Amino acid sequence: MTRFVNTSDAEIEELLEGRNSKNTSNVISMAVKIIRDYFEDMAINISVEDLENDSNEKLNLVLRKFYAELRKKNVELYSKSSLISIRYGLQRHFLKLKGVDIINNQEFKSANDVFKACLVKVKREGKGETKHKDVISEEDREKMYSTGVLSTSAPSTLQNKVFFELLLFFCNRGRENVREMEKNDFQICIDAQGKRFVKQNISRLTKNHRGDTADSDDKSPRMYEEPGNERCPVNSFEKYLAKLHPDNKWLWQKPREGFEEEDSVWFCNVPVGKNTLGNMMQKISKEANLSKMYTNHCIRATCISVLDECGYEARHIIGLSGHKSESSIKHYASCLNESKKRNMSTAVSSKVLSVTRKTVAMENTTANFEQLDFLNDIDDQYLMNVLEQPVMNTKPRPQNFFTNCSVTINYNYNKD
User: Kindly report the CA angle at 219 between 214 and 222, in degrees rounded to 5?
Assistant: First the structure.
């Protein structure tokens, strides 16, 4: 009996398709469908299959015209991110079936020039902005804890806390692999200094890391304990694990409605649904009455933004976040959080208002000096006589300095 197995071409093809994440596969399918619809609506006598066998020159000409005429079903322009996704999908499709890269190959320069011009047009018409996920503000982060929404005293709020902190410290992408998490995926360990931390035992496939030879298994983040801090994430996680239903392997279980603190089990033998987990941060936002409705992906954005604010280099941050390149997180570094925006506004206001106050002070001073016009009536000879009189008291007097104040001079003058 041989240890090897026979594999059909279809099975090999399925194996190759499995390399792509679900999102990537959807992008490719969407892009191919759009260009098929384009050929049909524009009555162009050509098919995608024809392009797979035609010359690169002809494919370039077709793409050049396709990019210029591409519109949504309501005849509006696609957004910048949608255009980039469509071209990326076509790139992956023709790279696989034709062996040609329609983005980086110089034979497609004219088509890509038209594509870039389309991006400029989209931006000119106000559709070029890419909407990134909001970073959870410092005030809202504090509010989550202070309102009790992340309390450890009840099943639902304890789950909220563990959910938020796991996604935060492990920089997890919004919905990715959350439903598939199991209790045994995580472990509480002790490092060489005797400090406890939570680590992830299993490295699951993600959008950017598909388990190929370029991936490293030594990139798992750690969530360390905070001794003496009532919000310690390790203590919360440890309590959460202890209260889970022992007969259920899933990490996210439905919280029991009726419970007692001393109960050994706080959760039902039923896993939380995928959609419920996908909307967890929205649920937390509503319960804590936060300033806006955040999504799960906002937790990831918050992790990257906080690390950037703390001065960590991009090469270290992507080691935790799982991004493939430093350029992928540039927008997090360039975004200003609410606190910075507020401080910058205050700085500008203080400078402008400071100038205004000085101007007002000068205007008041001018007005006060205008009240001394009576000095113009004093006889010059009289002033000379006053100045020539000897100083009777030469004892040094204390010097007083006044700023930003009005000075009133009472002078009794009798010309006779």
Answer: 170
